[in-house]
Amino acid sequence: MFADRAKIIIRSGKGGDGHVSFRRELFVPDGGPDGGDGGKGGDVIFEVDEGLNTLIEYRHRRKFSATDGEQGGKRKCHGANGRDIILKVPAGTVIKDAESGQVIADMSGDNTRQIVLKGGRGGNGNMHYATSTMQAPKYAQPGQEAKELEVQLELKVIADVGLVGFPNVGKSTFLSRVTNARPKIANYHFTTLSPNLGVVDLDGGGFVIADIPGLIEGASEGVGLGHQFLRHIERTKVMIHIVDAASVEGRDPVDDIQKINAELAAYNEELARRPQVIAANKIDAIYTADDAENPIQRLKDVFEPQGIPVFAISAVSGQGVEELLFHVQSMLRELPREITVFEQEFDPEVRMVSANLPFTVEKSTEEDNTYIVEGPRIEKMLGYTNLESEKGFRFFQDFLKENGILEQLEALGIQEGDTVRMYGMQFDYYK
């Protein structure tokens, strides 16, 4: 089975503890403190490996850890830093927080290497704490704790064009004809159980095309492995909707397209609005009586008024295929060339560092209609967040809600238009 999902636990290294020691040398009976600092813990780093195309490496191993920093030593010796752990993933892998489902990193485009969990800072040795009044400090700083997080890895293939349609309509045959891909082809449902990628070479520029395994009704709800496949068309810019125009299996091609589009909309409304082109396949198998309705004309009558062009093709003989490909090429030229990259929604440094820190919410005794929110957790959050950006301000609002701050403000009687102060920043409250 194609491995395009995996759930793993990652752990950064703990910072080494600072050391407590004093100089003990001949003729120096009362030497000063010389305890060294602890080493930094190792980071957890994700890195794109162009040679990988699945997440199979993460199916058989559950936990991945960087090493801890070493403790500081005597004579101001610094502890060795912990070793980073580098996790190789295929391009297109999205790393999510397993609990919330929020995106931590998308290993696509220019993002080929990212530190997801930073190692703990090493603690200071006692040499840092000598003062004029405390010349022999007998304490040192402990190293910062390791961070551990369960993450969901999801591979979303990177392709310009996605082939969608019911099983056995000829997607794999079409892909093998127009690209260098060699998918397995057979006449039964769900022949394709993994997305196949191929490159279309055309005069004026080619493009990458992905054969998405056949969808069925209920795919958006996970029926027939639907969810496992739908994610792979999230990055595509154009969809070629292949349909059996000859109704070889007795299905209505117009109904097939409407059902698949309904599944796309149910999974993600934006997907259903992506540019589409219909490839009415198997025209070499169409046999109609003189008085029967032409299935190609019927498809054009229904979908071309909706702005979806219909091309009659035969994936077996190649009839009409070149015309379809050049049309798709022209569609892609009018669309942005950048790869769709999912924005970060969850920052482990912000969420995990501040999770156990306290905060207070109280009404000001000096100013009317003013409330004050303070504490290390708030200060840490504001230090990490750019409130000038839309994304940063959205995170700020989510932080207030998730940590119960809005609920506490409402319990204190805050009203719309009242003022909330946080470390020199001032906000008007609106529900």
Keyword list:
431 residues; 6-stranded mixed sheet; 5-stranded mixed sheet; 21% strand; alpha/beta; 21% helix
Structure in a nutshell:
21% of the residues lie in helices and 21% in strands. The protein is of the alpha/beta class.
List SSEs in N-to-C order.
Answer: EEEEEEEEEHEEHEHHEHEHHEEHHHEE
**Tertiary shape:** elongated
Strand order in space, largest sheet: 10-11-9-12-13-14
Uncertain regions spanning at least 5 consecutive residues = 183-192, 222-226
Largest sheet: 6 strands, mixed
Percent helix = 10-25%
Structural class category: alpha/beta
| Span between termini | 48 Å
Radius of gyration: 30 Å
Write down the overall mean pLDDT.
80
Strand content: 15-25%
Tally of strands: 18
Individual helix count: 10
In words, what does this structure look like?
With 431 residues, the chain is of the alpha/beta class. Helix content is 21%, strand content 21%. The chain has 10 helices and 18 strands. The chain has helices spanning 171-178, 226-230, 253-267, 269-272, 295-303, 321-333, 348-353, 376-384, 390-402, 405-411, and strands spanning 5-11, 44-48, 63-65, 85-89, 93-97, 103-107, 113-117, 148-155, 161-164, 196-200, 207-211, 238-244, 276-281, 310-312, 360-363, 370-374, 419-422, 425-428. It has a 6-stranded mixed β-sheet, with helices on both faces. A 5-stranded mixed β-sheet has the order 3-1-8-5-6, with no helix packed on it. It has a 4-stranded mixed β-sheet with strand order 15-16-17-18. Strand 5 (93-97) and strand 6 (103-107) form a beta hairpin. The chain is elongated, with a radius of gyration of 30 Å. It starts with a strand and ends with a strand.
